[in-house]
Specification:
22-stranded antiparallel barrel, 5% helix, two-stranded antiparallel ribbon, globular, mainly beta, 28 strands, single chain
Amino acid sequence: MKRFFFVLLLAIFISPLIFSEEFSFDDPKWKLNGKIRIPKVPENCISGAWNGNDYVYGGSFSPSFWNKHLVLDVKGGNLSLSGILSLMNNPTLSSVVSPFSTADKTVRELKASLPDGSSFSSRQALYSSIKIDGGKAFPASLSSSVLYTDEETYVFSSALKVKAPGNLFLDFQASAGSSVLDDRKSDSWFSDKGFFRECDRKSVLSIQGAVRKESFSMLFSDIVYSDGFGQFMSVYRADSVWKYGSVSAVWNPSHGLRTFSGKELDESLFIKVNLQDQKKLNGKIPFFFKYGLTVFSQSNLSEKEDVLKAALGFRLFCVLASLSGNLQGEFKIRPEEDKTFAVIWKKATVSSSGTWYFSAVQPTLKGSFWLSPSEDYLSWKSGETVSLVLNISSSPSASFSLSGTVNQNSWQYKNAELESGISLKYKSKFLDFSGKVSWSIEFSQ
């Protein structure tokens, strides 16, 4: 296996030099991130990041009282927003399929995090939350959050989690948001003469309820959108997780619905089913074998084309190493005039990776191949990617990555790209620092 990966890696790195007629070298890309913590109060900190062209910053203040049964959290700056706001912006299921994906187990709360260098949001935001934990005397917790951004967006969220007898958990969440409507120039319902100028805000309401046990959970969500003209549209979502997998479904019965982020959704039904299990293989060194299957479907109720994706994979791992393999397929389904259905193959991907856990270095080797035919199957697009990542466990820790990609049209060489990067991380009692520099070379005929 290691010899095969080495030969494939060498072939992908050398082939661009042989078949390419020209190449371009991109300028190095930099990313720096730092976080300063206040002694004895690690939640109170100042964070900032720079990527060579732009910078972001933020700060947090999180005091706690009554033996941490009451916790306040205040953040400001270029915050990364997630939780229930992500669901308001896009209530549908992700079309990315993984053999080991799972569904939501509990309600989503409004979350905000300081910039860490992974994203550079130019949006300024102020976030505050309060959480009250009843402890053993009253096994329940209540949390409320408020968010304001410089785009005049307001979001309020509140969640209640209760532990009932029989090791049963009941979760409830309600959130509401308001934001300015998208630019009139890009919205079809606005007139150039400004007849509807007084309707300049949109709103959203989210309600969730969940029932959880140790090996089973059920979550129901209803997200209601208002366009500012008195029209309300709902999206319904259900998630269930159990020991051997999960099922998620999203139904949007409305045409032309616009989410809180402005994304337009037509009538559609999304379903994602995952089945997975894990077995222990006894021996001198115990191994674990995990395998899974995920199927995703998107039925466009207002269009005559559906999407079907599937991923099948395995993972074999122990304390010394891990090996995984993945097979993915993507299809389009169209109804025919004779009331039958045509299944059109769009893309197939085969990938594998291996990681070795040495004491000082953890190398990871990955390889993938994808193939995509035209609808008449007379032409093909394909590509191969091989990457090597070396993670060095030290203080500071370091990581080195090298990857190569080659693309073909009808089995003829088209272009290629080589990418490389080096990153460093340092963490102490008062300071976190990370930096990364990456560069790439593109080859073409």
